[in-house]
């Protein structure tokens, strides 16, 4: 089965591809893919907590499709604001002063 991808438009108009990766019983990684491609180093990620019945069982696993269905535009906006870069960038130890 093909992995479902959504589009999320950021506040600056950038259209990010959204994927659900590594779903477990209680959370899943939400990946915001920059339109510049995976080699651009601009992809971001955030964790979405899962509160369904699977979260109470260590042997259960939520599906990526189930998580994707819960991602409304408001939830994606919140997750994007909380997201972090996947790549450390060209100078990860640079201090912003």
Task: Map the helices and strands.
Elements: E1 6-9, E2 15-21, E3 27-33, E4 44-49, H1 64-69, H2 73-82, E5 84-85
Antiparallel strand pairs: 1-2, 2-3, 3-4, 4-5
Characterise this structure.
With 97 residues, this protein is of the alpha+beta class. It has one domain. 16% of the residues lie in helices and 27% in strands. It has two helices and five strands. The chain has a five-stranded antiparallel sheet. 14% of the residues are buried. The model has no long low-confidence stretch (mean pLDDT 86).
Q: What is the percent of helical residues? A: 10-25%
Low-confidence stretches: none
Strand arrangement across the biggest beta sheet: 1-2-3-4-5
> Which structural category do the helix and sheet elements fall into?
alpha+beta
């Amino acid at each position: 089965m093909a992995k479902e991808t959504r589009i999320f438009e950021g506040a600056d108009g950038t259209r990010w591809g959204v994927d659900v990766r590594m779903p477990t019983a209680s959370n899943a990684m939400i990946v915001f893919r920059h339109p510049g491609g995976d080699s651009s180093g601009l992809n971001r990620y955030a964790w979405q907590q899962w509160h369904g019945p699977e979260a109470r069982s260590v042997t259960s696993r939520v599906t990526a499709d189930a998580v994707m269905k819960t991602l409304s535009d408001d939830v994606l906006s919140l997750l994007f604001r909380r997201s972090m870069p996947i790549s450390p960038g060209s100078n990860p130890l640079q201090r912003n002063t």
